[in-house]
Design brief:
402 residues; alpha/beta; TIM Barrel; 2 domains; nine-stranded mixed β-sheet; three-stranded antiparallel β-sheet; 12 strands; globular
């Protein structure tokens, strides 16, 4: 067995961080004991299972290292601007130290445009020294020819790209594509591992297959497909650019075709799983391979530029300041866990419930005004809502006659 990098006890057993291949693996108490895990008092508590138990800490944290960015993308969930707030290096180091103390495994630097910070590489080096695996999400704006090789300090660079096809840029500006493509060429030349983040909208959906091919040709090792979620400036475009029902119904077959024809890895973000509920997915296989729905408050947490925690990058709830107990006491994080444990119908009876966890809370709240409302883009919710809608009756007086 590959030597584990780190071990973290959980009620069900432990989470093991592997180096080769890089992965987080959940193991039961028997194997955890063989690996030398000290559970403290955790194993004295009843365990409901790996995909039910609240984790003792997040496995991944998205850390906003700046709100500065000059591109003005219309879909920016962070409302980034050229004069946005930016924490000091020492403040961010303090945040990284708290995350390491919490037992976090990986941290993703974001913003704003994280790559514009002159000290972003020093931050990544500090994260590694603390036992955290750093990644970064970027438009490519800060990937100059002279800096490209320095991005090797990151386990992976994720480049946001709408693809090479003209007219499909919806969440970003038309100039963003050229910036991303130049950055990818520089990263590839420097031997830096990178992936591509692609937001699926009703406009960009038509370019999915072409983008996947172009990403592979550009040297990307991974394509992550992101659902359009209302947040920041992106809230204004959600209604007009969210996938049409017919596109949602074609999404599963489209993903299977990518997996079968492309060499790069294809991933979906956690908000995407509800859209795949009609694709004939096997719940046990989904959980086994870590294809899960909303991870906010269970394994994922975000920290904004002011040090406040939130369930995910789109929620912007501005909760507790990051501390060793914020994970367990923050109300927004607790609300996400409570919903996943007790969602309304049809989620409560859905065979995908333990994988999906009740749909995206940000979409549901935006669309219905209710945090615990149904995710309206889920095909199963759509079918349920249609069946629940009152049927129009035709009385004899209103019926047409021959």
């Amino acid at each position: 067995m590959t030597r584990p990098l780190r071990l973290r006890p959980e009620r069900f057993g432990a989470i093991v961080s592997l180096q080769d291949p890089p992965a987080l693996v959940s193991v039961d108490r028997v194997l955890a004991r063989r690996l030398g895990v000290d559970p403290g008092g955790l194993w004295e508590q009843r365990s409901d299972g790996v995909d039910v138990d609240p984790l003792s800490a997040p496995t991944e944290v998205h850390l906003a290292v700046t709100e500065r960015c000059g591109q003005g993308c219309p879909g920016c969930y962070a409302d980034a601007s050229p004069d946005g707030d930016e924490p000091s290096f020492s403040a961010l180091v303090a945040q990284l130290e708290r995350l390491a103390e919490l037992g976090v495994f990986s941290v993703t630097f974001g913003g704003g445009e994280a790559s514009l910070r002159a000290d972003v590489f020093a931050l990544a080096e500090r994260a590694r020294a603390l036992g955290l695996v750093p990644t970064v999400t970027t438009s490519g704006a800060g990937v100059s020819a002279g800096r490209a090789s320095r991005f090797r300090v990151f386990a992976q660079v994720n480049v946001s790209w709408d693809g090479p096809k003209p007219g499909l840029a919806t969440v970003r500006t038309h100039e963003s594509a050229a910036i991303a493509e130049l950055a990818m060429a520089r990263l590839r030349a420097a031997g830096v591992r990178f992936g591509v983040n692609f937001v699926l909208t009703r406009t960009s959906f038509a370019g999915l297959e072409e983008l996947a091919k172009a990403a592979e040709v550009a040297g990307a090792v991974e394509l992550q497909l992101l659902r359009l979620v209302p947040g920041g400036r992106g809230s204004a475009m959600w209604q007009s650019q969210r996938l049409r029902s017919a596109q949602v119904d074609r999404l599963g077959p489209a993903l299977m075709k990518l997996v079968e024809t492309r060499e790069l890895s294809v991933r979906v973000n956690c908000a995407m799983l509800p859209l795949l509920s009609s694709a004939g997915l096997a719940p046990d296989e989904l959980r086994r391979f870590g294809v899960l729905g909303c991870e906010a408050g269970r394994s994922l947490m975000t920290v904004d530029v002011h040090g406040r925690v939130s369930p995910c990058s789109y929620s912007h709830r501005g909760g507790q300041l990051l501390s060793v107990d914020a994970w367990s006491v923050d109300e927004a994080l607790r609300a996400h866990r409570a919903h996943a444990l007790s969602p309304p119908e049809p989620c409560a009876s859905c065979d995908l419930r333990r994988a999906c966890r009740g749909g995206c809370r940000v979409v549901a709240r935006h669309a219905t005004g209710d945090f615990d409302g149904l995710d309206p883009e889920c095909p199963r919710v759509r079918e349920f809502s249609s069946a629940q809608a009152p049927k129009e009756s035709t009385s004899p007086s209103s019926a047409s006659t021959m």
